[in-house]
Amino acid sequence: MNDYQIRFEEWLASDEVSAEDKARLNALGEDEKKELFFAPLAFGTAGMRGVLDVGINRMNTFTVRRATKGLADYINTLGEEACKRGVVISYDTRKFSSEFAIEVAKVLSANGINAHLFEDVRPVPMCSFAIRRLNAIAGVMITASHNPKIYNGYKVYGEDGAQMSPESTDKVVKFIDKTPYFGIKCADVKACAKCIKGLDNQKLDEHITVIGKSVDAAYFDEISKLSLSPEAVKSFGANVKLVYTPIHGSGFMPVTTILKRMGITVNVVEEQAKPDTEFSTVRVPNPEEADTLKLGVELADRIGSDIVIGTDPDADRMGIAVRNNEGSFVLLNGNQIGVLLFNYILIRKAESGTLPKNGALVKTIVTTELARMLANDYGVTTFDVLTGFKFIGEKIKEWEDSGEFVYLFGFEESYGSLVGTHSRDKDAVVASMMFAEMVCYLDSIGKSVYQVLQDIFEKYGYFVEKATSVTFGGLDGMEKMKNIMLELRNAKYNEIAGTPVLAVSDFVARKKTFADGTSEPIALPKTNALKLHLANGDWICVRPSGTEPKLKFYVATSKPTQAEATELANAYLAHMKGLVNE
Predict the structure, then answer these.
(1) Share of the chain above pLDDT 90, in %
(2) Which residue, 500, 220, 341, 96, is CA-closest to 212?
(3) What's the angle, vertex CA 418, arms to CA 412 and CA 422, rounded to 5?
(4) β-strand 416-418 against 462-471: which pairing, if any?
(5) From residue 433, how far is each of 69, 259, 341, 463 by CA, in Å?
(6) Measured between alpha carbons, how far is 154 from 68 in angstroms, rounded to an integer?
(7) By the 8 A CB rule, do 52 and 278 touch?
(8) Which residues are CB-neighbours of 318 under 8 A, at least 6 positions away?
(9) Average pLDDT of 554-578?
(10) Which of 169, 183, 159, 158 is nearest to 42 (CA)?
(11) Residue 273, SS3?
């Protein structure tokens, strides 16, 4: 009997598996059995994410309990004080998110670890904020971010509020690997999403405390301090006609609360305001997609608005649609949103005399170089980090300890950013707040968001960044990606789409090799990524996804016109995808 068949039989024989799930198991074909039981769902530095279903390779109660038992065992090695500090638990609006969150609390409690469980859905940034606010040792966020409805996930955070470090994650994984799927002790607590809703600082048992409005209030007080244009908001906020959609996610309460608190009128897309585990109004709950913001654009056209803001289910990413000079709505990409927010921060801090001499921007290695050009003009230092917002969080902590730089802004091309240091992960609540405030400021000087973006392009060149991915399905998908990355790493590159390749950065070898054969070390942690540095500042990067069997391609170029830049970016993508297909 194969290993996957042995695991399948164990699940089928377990008294803990429900009759409904056993019926599902009995209905599986052989290929499905193998897929669901061939290997455990991977737990990496971003936690774990997968399709909801039975089996060890899926998200379900048993994989959640097992991961939590591993986390609990790790925390117990840190001592009694760490157990008392406890773990913050939050969750979004996805299917089984509240149930999984309660399971996390029950497993932690059974292992003598305090759990601070939010009374209702809360987004990623509020989870991160609460970890530091409550001096917790860790945090767990139940979410699959912007993935389709069939997914859910489990993010783990360290005591600094950033996603757990690779070193700590490795220790947690070792405990998880030793943990069985059944027989995990859970506290005997009768809790459900409905019965804890509205509670605040109330205990369910010796170790589980439900948290709510008191933490919310502290969060809103903190982010209110980030405002840069209160006068403009006071004068123009009531008439801004802003459209917002939470896309059935956890952003509804915090985004509408902070905008109303500021005095900015917000027009919510009512069809997408309430939680919906099916995300029934969209194809995918991803604000990066034009069709996801379709209802928001329709509302904006009806009321005469120029701005549509959307946040994903866990409210760590923000998408934006703005009206162009022809009166049509266009979707901004993550780089453009980040550049606009950073540009606004620089302008307002310079005008108010609060721009520090040692200010710093942090962006990832696949994020636009246009931000660096803005930073240079204002005397701000730019730092590149690996993909993953935890690396931006690490920089914040480093500078808080050393005082060497003052963090101004951090963002990545994948629609995530952070203004302020109250959170150590992406915060679409604050991003929505700052973007709305920026609109008020621009109204006060007679400009539109689209005009400002075109002004930036006119000054620095038209920057186009594109990204795509190739999915590798099947049981050998991860192995295929590994082999392709090895082939790409060993290939020789002279030119791509007519543009000379000046250097290649290998983030596994941590070495940048130039065309003349010389090289220099890369002062970043080891990661499986390859970046090609082309003439004129263009670049191409390839890396496997950290959560899915996808190979991701990023390209960037700048030209005098949008058409020229777009044509070359498309040529770069086609070339790289061609190499993979070969």
Answers:
(1) 93
(2) 220
(3) 150
(4) unpaired
(5) 38, 6, 11, 26
(6) 10
(7) no
(8) 287, 309, 310, 311, 337, 415, 417, 428, 431, 432, 435
(9) 95
(10) 169
(11) coil
Rounded to whole angstroms, how far apart are CA atoms 489 and 499? 19
126 Cβ neighbours under 8 A, 6+ residues apart = 90, 118, 215, 216, 219, 254, 423, 429
Do 432 and 259 contact (CB within 8 A), yes or no? yes
The beta-carbon contacts of 14-20 under 8 Å, at least 24 apart in sequence, are 14/182, 16/62, 16/182, 16/183, 17/54, 17/62
Give 287-330 pLDDT, tens digit per residue.
Answer: 999 999 999 999 999 999 999 999 999 999 999 999 999 999 99
Residue in the structure block whose two tokens are 């004080």: 81
pLDDT of residue 449: 98
Query: Edge-to-edge strands of the sheet including 381-385?
Result: 381-385, 359-364, 406-412, 416-418
Q: Residue 100: what are its φ and ψ, rounded to 5°?
A: -65, -40
Q: Which of 485, 490, 498, 492 is nearest to 538 (CA)?
A: 498
C-beta neighbour count of 154 within 10 angstroms:
26
Q: How confident is the model at residue 286 (pLDDT cuts 50, 70, 90)?
A: very high
How many other CB atoms sit within 10 Å of the CB of residue 236?
A: 19
Active-site entry in 90, 97, 98, 145 = 145
Q: CA nearest 425: which of 193, 127, 54, 214?
A: 127
Is the separation of the CB atoms in 279 and 149 below 8 Å?
yes
Closest to 22 in 3D by CA, of 32, 10, 39: 10
Q: Please give the Cα distance from 102 to 117 (Å, whole number).
A: 8
d(CA 186, CA 107): 5
The burial class, CB within 10 Å (0-12 / 13-18 / 19+), for 489 is middle
- Under DSSP, the state recorded for 471 is E
Judge whether 305 counts as a catalytic residue. no
Tell me if 340 sits within 8 A of 419, measured CB to CB.
no
**505-544 confidence digits (pLDDT tens):** 999 999 999 999 999 999 999 999 999 999 999 999 999 8
User: Which tokens sit at 200?
Assistant: 């605040």
Token pair for 98: 């509240």
As a whole number of angstroms, the distance between CA 510 and CA 30 comes to: 43
Do 246 and 255 contact (CB within 8 A), yes or no? yes
Which helix (DSSP H) or strand (DSSP E) does residue 418 occupy? strand 416-418
Cβ pair 282, 291 in contact under 8 A: yes
Q: What is the 3-state secondary structure of 232-260?
A: HHHHHHHHCCEEEECCCCCCHHHHHHHHH
